[in-house]
Amino acid sequence: MDIDFRNGQWLNAPATAEACEHSLTLTTDRQTDFWRETHYGFIRDTGHFLGVTTADGFTAKIRVQGQFRSLYDQAGLMVRIDEKRWVKTGVEYTDGQAFLSTVVTDGKSDWSVSQPFKELEDFYIRVTLSKGAMRIQASRDARFWPLLRLAHFPVVDTYQVGPTACTPERSGLVVRFSEFEINPAITKDLHDLT
C-alpha cells in the first residue's frame, strides 16, 4: 500500500520540509542524530523521523535520493517502538565514502556497514519485520535486493515506520524520499533476493 507522506507524524520535524502524497523533501537541521551509549557514551534522540503506525508482520520500502558528502550524513528508514528501541537503516557517509548502514538499538545501539553497491545517491531500502525477526535489504533498482542484516527486534502491537535523516556534524543535507510503501511481510526464502 502506498503511503501518503502527509499522514506521517513527525519526531523532531526539520525547519524545512515539504511533504505531498508521493514524496517528502527535507533539509536537515544542525547536529541531528539517533544513538544510544555504545562506544561514544552519549544518547541522542534528535534526528528527523516521519513515522506511520503499523502492526507486526510488514514490509516497508522507500526510495532515498541525496548527495551524502560529510561525515555521518545519513538517510533511510526507521522502525521505532520508543526512544530505547529502534532501528535506522540506509546510507551513511563515513571514512570518506557512502556505505549502507544499520543501527539496531535495544537499550544500547550497535552499528554495521556494508557496501554491496557504491552508487548511493539514489537507492531503495526495504525492511521486513515479522515475529521478532527483522530482514533489511537494499537495492539500486527495486528488483535485486542484497541482504544487509538479519536481526532480532522486540515484538509489540504497533511500530512507527518511516523516513529518517540526520546530520550529526552539520546541517543542510537535502534528501528526497519517495515510493514509500508498507505491505504485509514478504515470505520469500532468506536467500531469494528478488
From TrEMBL:
InterPro entries: ConA-like_dom_sf, DUF1349, UCP022704
Domain of life: Bacteria
Pfam families found in the cross-reference section: DUF1349
Gene3D superfamilies in the cross-refs: 2.60.120.200
Designated name of the protein: Uncharacterized protein
Organism of this sequence: Phytopseudomonas argentinensis
Lineage: Bacteria, Pseudomonadati, Pseudomonadota, Gammaproteobacteria, Pseudomonadales
